[in-house]
Design goal:
The protein has 363 residues and is α+β, with helices and mostly antiparallel strands. It has eight helices and 19 strands. Strand 16 (257-264) and strand 17 (268-273) form a beta hairpin. It binds FE2/S2 (inorganic) cluster (FES) and fe (ii) ion.
Amino acid sequence: MEKVRIDPDIRRAATLPARVYRDPEAFALQRERLFPRAWHLVGDAALLREPGDRMPVTLLPGALDEPLLLARGKDGRVRLLSNVCTHRGNVLVTEPGRGQDIRCRYHGRRFGLDGKFLSMPEFAEAVGFPSRSDDLPEVPLGEWGRFLLGSLAPEVAAEKLLEPIRARAGFVPLEKLAFDPKGARDYEVAANWALYLDNYLEGFHIPYVHASLNEALDYAAYATELSEWGVVQVGVAAAGEPAFDLPAGHPDVGKRIGAYYFWLFPTTMFNVYPWGISVNVVQPLAHDRTRVSFLPYVLDPLKRGVGAGSGLDRVEREDEQVVESVQRGVRSRLYDRGRYSPTRETGVHHFHRLLVRGMGMEG
Ligand code: FES
Ligand SMILES: [Fe+2]
């Protein structure tokens, strides 16, 4: 695929070429080069309460189908392991459950909860067996409290990725959040995942697309901050709208913050509101199809119906409409690239630079 140059100077840069959004070949490059080296949300440690608890997980169903397994060991530690038997490749765990060890249903090989090979029938005569290659490979795991992220071959340490969220949202008592399964929703969007993110990464469209959200936020004070591997958007609450009670020493003390929108490259978003957190997970399905999961974690149910964190379903539908419209637009023969607003689209510009680099298309 042809190289792409996104000028580091936003004032001069042109946006991502339309072909990156519409071309299955670009999606194939992302699957092959970008997703395996990035971090993705894999689960909630609170679902693995006791040693022996395990659950099968996939980093990105359809786009990064690596069978993995989260397991809490006897030492209390949660590990992310390969879910593929080291004998002849059977998938080991297919349902969440609990047990002393992990046993393959094909020929009875057993592994510890730490992935170490334990036993195997009919192998007494095998030479040089067992060896370390008979253990289940362990996959790097990152943790923001209970929220677990995994990466097959990380390009960056999880700690680096999580630094901005620890600094800004470290005060949120994550262990007290109650997951609300009834409020959880999956949205199917007929658009490229990167278009969904382009839209997520700017507040520029809020006054045009989201009438109600626009009333809850102070648009003039809306701020976007970049970190090496992410973006945080800080939504200042409009007068009379709910805001965080920030602890002493917090970088935003003195401001009335109604929402923090954290994006962790490339697929994870934590939208932090006074009522709790809406975790959004972007799952790229095809070059023109994306699933987005909304997972609500509630701290204060009374605040859920007000402010920037309310009416999320309506806001999502408004976003979907515009993103799907852009997907149709990028198929035009008369459109290729645009320009960035230097004041309002720094997050989008940053994402595009990371994306092009991650695909190995940097020109
Ligand atoms: S594939 Fe697991 S024991 Fe044979
Ligand atoms: Fe939006």
